[in-house]
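Bug #77: duplicate submission created two jobs. Keeping one. Sequence:
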Amino acid sequence: MRIASWNVNGIRAVQRKGLWDPFVAEVAPDVICLQEIKADQSQADVDLEGYHEIWHSAEKKGYSGTAIFSKIEPLRTTTGLSARLAKKHGLAEDSFGDPNAEGRVITAEFEDFYLVTVYTPNAKSDLSRLALRHERWDPAFLDHLRALKKKKPVAVCGDLNVAHTEDDLAHPKPNVGKAGFTNEERAGIQAFLDAGFVDSFRMFTQGNGHYTWWSNFSKARERNVGWRIDYFLVSDDLAPRIEAAAIHAHIMGSDHCPVTIDVRTA
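Kept job's structure:
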């Protein structure tokens, strides 16, 4: 089974550019997870024959949102984090809105694993949302994954809005302490690994130069001055079944590129 994840930065924009169909044809995924769709189902004409569709749009129009398209119909799906987790971790509305009303999480249960796609809140360039992310969102999301992991293996994918190590961005030194590379954000992703999740890409590829997001300025993508902030993390009991993990940096349409894993079915 091939699973693709892509922050499309607007599904309608990718379609207008004529780059959606070429992506699907080239990557040939069995499941597609999208982040930052910036639309609801009625606004985007996504006609994928043979795929079941799950949409989780933000309450705020044209903002955030996630979706899953799957050739295999999930046994069940849920959207967002539970009310219990939101209350436990204080996921209340801030000056930007309610993070649990922004269409950020879809969980799909399949026969032998869970698949979660997430669009993690951005800390913002002035770090005004860093406390929300570090103190509330990341712990709540990790609690969600831990609960799933107790039942069956888990794969979680999406835009985590953080470069984990210095190898995950082209210019680490000048970005220390800046959004996407603060100690707090990096500690958040490390907590996932410490809880028994594995960075699937690093199972196959080491070193720097492998990025999934590039600024739209200064020809950053052309010069490969980027960040790896889009991940597939898999629970340690699923890791032995991961046969490949790839970054498709040549696929255009967004400031992010798709990432994939190939999973051996049980």
